[in-house]
Design brief:
heterotrimer, A alpha/beta (440), B alpha/beta (871), C alpha+beta (169), A: 440 residues, alpha/beta, four-stranded parallel β-sheet, four-stranded mixed β-sheet, 12% strand, B: 871 residues, 27 helices, 19% strand, binds flavin mononucleotide, binds iron/sulfur cluster, binds FE2/S2 (inorganic) cluster
Chain lengths: 440, 871, 169
Amino acid sequence: MAAQETRVITKFLRDRPDDSWEYSVAREHNHAYAALEKALGMEPAALVEEVQKSGLRGRGGAGFGTGQKWSFLPKDIFPRYLAVNADEGEPATFKDHMLIERDPHQIVEGSIITAYAIQAHHAFIYLRGEFALGAERLQAAVEDAYANGFLGKNILGSGFDLELIVHRGAGCYIAGDETGLLSSLEGERAMPRIKPPFPAVQGLYAAPTIVNNVETMSAVTQIVNNSGEWYAGMGVNKSLGTRIFSVSGNVERPGNYEVELGTTFRELIEGLAGGVKGAKLMKFFIPGGASSPWLLPEHLDEPLDMDRATELGTMLGSGAIMVFDETVDPVLVAWRIAKFFAHESCGKCTPCREGSGWLEKVLYRMANGLGRTEDLDLLLGFGNNLAPGLSWPPGQTTICQLGPSTMSPTVSLNKYWGDEIRARLASDAARRKTLEVASA
Amino acid sequence: MSVSSVPMSQWPSDHRYTIPVAGDQDVVSITIDDKVVQVPRGELLIKAAQDHGTYIPRFCWHERMKPVGMCRMCLVEVEGMRGLQISCATPVVDGMVVRTTTDNVKSTQDGILEFLLINHPLDCPVCDRGGECPLQDQTLAFGPGESRYVEEKRHFEKPIPISDLVMLDRERCIQCGRCTRFAAEIAGDALIDFGGRGGTTEVITYPDAPFTSYFSGNTVQICPVGALTASAYRFRARPWDLESVETSCQACAVGCRGALESTSNRLVRLLGVDSEPVNHGWLCDKGRYGYEWVHSDTRMRVPGVRRGTELAVTSWPEALDAAAAALRRVRDEHGAGAIGVIGGARGTNEDAYAWARFAKGVLRTDNVDAQLGDGLPAALVLGMPRATIGDLDRARAIVLLGPDLKEELPVLYLRARRAAEELGVPLIDVAARDHGLSRHATTVIRHSPGVIDDAIDSAIAALEPIAGDGPVVVIIGRPSVAEAPDATVRAASRLAGLPGVRFLSALRRGNVHGALDLGLAPGFLPGRVTLDAGRDHVVAAWGGVPDEPGLDTTGILQAAAAGRIKALVLVGCDLLADFPDRTLARDAIAGAERVVCVGTFPDDAAERADVFLPTTVWGEQAGTTTNLEGRVLRLGRKVTAEGQALEGWRIAAELAARLGSEWDLETVEQVQDEIARVAPAFVGVDASLVRRARDGVVLPVADNLAELTFGPDRPAAGVSWEPIRAGAEGGDDGEGAPVAPPQPGVALHVWAGDAPSPPAAPTDSYALRLVVARTLYGNDRVVTASPSLANLSGGEALLLVNRRDRERIGVEDGTRVRVISPRASLDLPLHTDASTPEGVGFLAVNRAGPGAPELIDIAAHVTDVRVETIS
Amino acid sequence: MAFTDAERRRAEQLVARYPHSKSAVLPLLHMAQDRDGYVTGEAMEDIAELLGLTPALVLGTCSFYTMFKRAPIGNLVVSVCTNVSCLVNGGPALVDSLRARYADDDDVHVEEVECVAACDLAPVMQVNYEFHGPVTSEAAADVIEQYKSGALTARTISGSPVDAGSKAP
Ligand SMILES: Cc1cc2nc3c(=O)[nH]c(=O)nc-3n(C[C@H](O)[C@H](O)[C@H](O)COP(=O)(O)O)c2cc1C
Ligand code: SF4
Ligand code: FES
């Protein structure tokens, strides 16, 4: 299993790991802002087309065609806004974190290009609050860009104006959802909003708004540097180009690996990340962040292909792969993920606000020997009102995806170890009974 | 579209999701549960379904607020759309096929209810909402049985007061956001919001900043559970014991529609009824809780006659004889002109008519006035081109030329705010100081009290560029009782010249407009006709009317003080509290030989009264009232008066009989029919029309047929969380609009637009020019005699001045200073106030103890005061 | 502590960057927290006044975000991740030992947090939002002590560089 990275957006930060983020270095050794110079010479429409050609799909989680999203903007309605999603909060995802700290200029450049392509004169990078160093470096990068005429009025004499603001969040996962992000950016509680209207039609301050992920922006820079065709030359089927995957958990070499889409899980996990740590076997892995349903070792030879993942009843989501060895109790993992969602639910939708907490309480008992025989079926019972169908992609009774995502771990538990767990719950219950009798 | 041109209220973060404007004519046809119906394009599905008899359960959606899609209860199946859709945020499109009762929908709704209930305390037996609780109802109707939830429930400290009027029980809260959205979206004072997040989301106030909104009671009414309760109502009654009648609030002249509820002959609750043209279902807290005064122990409930120094309890016949005798003697000895009749603006239209007939038709005096020196000339109010409240929505622009609507006509404030914020109507604010609506104004024009000409130039300039075909609505009232109405009238006469200008009166007292319409004003007869124009017509009915126009209240009091007027009949007014010039009021009462009080409470005048005749009040008597747009609205009778109080019109009739004029009026309907016959502006507005017109009748009916609506909506009283519908009482005698009713037989009065005396000179740089106006809560009876409101009544008057003036005077905030007017000198605390500009001082008039009324000389054009430090 | 004139000017600059002033709520709350060590009532009132909002709205927003503390918590906020990747790499043990160790240290506030996007460093902790990982309980305590002794310079409670509060967005 020949395992190798295809470094497109990570090439530079890997080649010069130390100080590659600084402007002078990036400019000299990475042609930072060369793509921007090129882009400003093109028609905005041509740029949109180029990105559509590249087949780039959003790297934030939803995997929506980037160029296509841009093309949804209603004609002739201005102003428009660009909001770059740098809130990276999906558990086990740490690629944006790296890009922000190690190559902020690539993000800023991509953002300027995108703003130009969609004709926005105000762009925001919504940065996860906990990224303190990232905030410093992004801010420095933005100031360099201003200082060198890549931002502000009449950029490089093109007549195009753009203000770019780095906006720090303050600790909440739901601000990562695009409409939650907009509420937060408007100074409110980061509550997602009912759609329609979609952000592209009525987003920030009621104006048409494009929300794109940090990695997506970085890819845009390289697509313009090379070409859409070149980018589309990598990858498989409808999953084109390269993508950064964050591999963590019980693996030898946890880290970010940029690979061509179509690479297999095995190549990524065993080849690049060095496989399960110690002399242990893999019990299961989570392929696309905490929201995604789980996979087993038997799926290791499946390709990293977004549509294939859907066929497998899961998703590549945010590109976060969590590996667990044979000693890990899946119920404990399910509980911890449930705890995460219960803590991060914004509380707007009844099923999510109440259901996520209920789920967490029951899974906690189940993971700690306090389960009742009926508990797993109880979860699947009320869970069906949270993620109708209990399959992926789930139906939705809530405003945003967080709601149904809360059920992914439980559904996976039932799918792979249902009987085992029911038996375990039964014996736990029995044991407690005998204890009661004894103590009585 | 430029960013700044999108008001925050129109950002589409869902609670600002733009609801299609009602009245949008083009319709689409959709299928709801196999029934094809026609609905306005873009209407929200949940509303469209409801209007066609399909009730989709909901908690967070309220039809007067924008959808937020939180509770997820309203999910339905829409053909061709994946998964279930929330009907509260799904606009209809042509050909849409909707199913609201499939197994999938049902089981999902059960699921939502189960989620809502897992953390709910289920303390229904001790909950005010029990019996009228949507959560309870829908649990019965849609809900699952046994709970599968065995974990620990969420716990919060049980009900905490978040204001003097509202209690919050966070355990019962289902986080629907109705209250927080009302506060932010409708009332515009977001003193409550959600705090925390996820499972621990709770409604919060800011520490030490209680929920002191004037509109807080509405949140209690629309809360779909018992999370918000009214201290006034807590544990007073159970819904199934309540009797209810639809009525109109008389706490101010907006005339909000309400459902008045009682149990065992005690009023316990007033709920807002949703009337599109009037109040959209909202009430202010003063109106909502003001019913309590009806049961106040301080009320006079038996007739009294003066025996020596004191007022002795007596029988009706004796009291009436005494009153009649006193008035007859004065008339015989000094002529009818020696009698003045003041008041009548707090009763019903029927009372007002009867008093007008008694004064002008029987006593034959024209010294009659319902206004108390704090209003506008009757000639203007009765004759100006009128706008309706609804016109605010369609207006090209709104010009504010009156009092602080938030303080004096709160629900009109809500409507004007909505027009400006939501509907984008330009708001031109002409005033001496900032007020509730100023922050929504597109143009702010400030002027020195009483000096208005330049300000009007600016207003006209501001109107100039505004295009559109809607009317320009000028809201006109008395910005200050410390200045003569002249400046305001001047302004009106100049604006009246502009195209499309219509006026909306901002006079405050409950039924002042009805009283004026029915002839309680010098120079006028019932039905908006002048003494001369209406003479023949009315004489035919009454047998006679005064020859000459008489005096207004100020004139009457001056004459009484001078001994020229010998007898005062005071009808439901407390001169010393209500009249701006207390010195004059005192002298007048002292100067009159005879005082007959027709009223409710003992007051300084009553102390002095020769006869006291107790009247029934709002809630104890049926009839009609007329709001500030000239809309005749039904008043409901819910309790029988304790003691011996009689309706005002019966008292007038009894007195008339004793003065030799038999009216044979037995019922209030007969009075209404007589009004329709005698008062030209009321032609067609007989008892039957009054009973059937759902939202009342705007006068004259012939010009306002479009405003007329009849059934079928009925008041759904008791169901307090959903908008309660305005409903016609009767409908028994024929449905639909009457054939266009006859035009008034007599030409109605038209305001000549004449502009009075030139404005006052500017203040000298040391003086402060006073603005004296009311605040919502003051020492008025409704407040002081209603236990729930009493402690809001505000204490003594404070002199509010600009920071620079305070520094010039050289005192700290809160210091007592000496305030000297030509009339009097008073010591009052001085406070800095950002909304008061330099050179102006503000005093609230309705305050306990000596205050503005001591300083004001009603004869002066403006009131300038000097402020001195007290050593 | 209420805004000084200088702070007010900085606040107004912050506000001016946004098309709508309300967007400045989070930056202003960070600024206030940097200054006072937590978000004081006065700060929320100042912000409300500056932006023409009610204090209730500012509190509502503030209380939604976990980084904002509304009571003093000392000078060091230690965030230990226990989400899945750290869960299987000793996160829970780390948080327990640090909690125990600093239980009565008013200067150090140890809290369990969700994934901080550094799973390759699991188990990971942040000290005033500076990343440290992977760390054993001992290593972690050692780092914290260095911050306390000043051997390492800590960021502000909101994670801004101590020196140039103005540099951080
Ligand atoms: C609960 C939730 C959390 C999300 N968190 C993130 C995030 O942290 N970062 C991100 O880029 N996208 C996140 N997304 C996806 C965004 O909603 C949005 O799809 C994405 O930012 C669009 O950018 P892209 O098209 O470049 O992927 C989240 C979505 C949901 C429902
Ligand atoms: S699904 Fe959950 S997180 Fe998403 S909007 Fe609804 S309550 Fe908030
Ligand atoms: S009524 Fe539609 S979501 Fe609440």
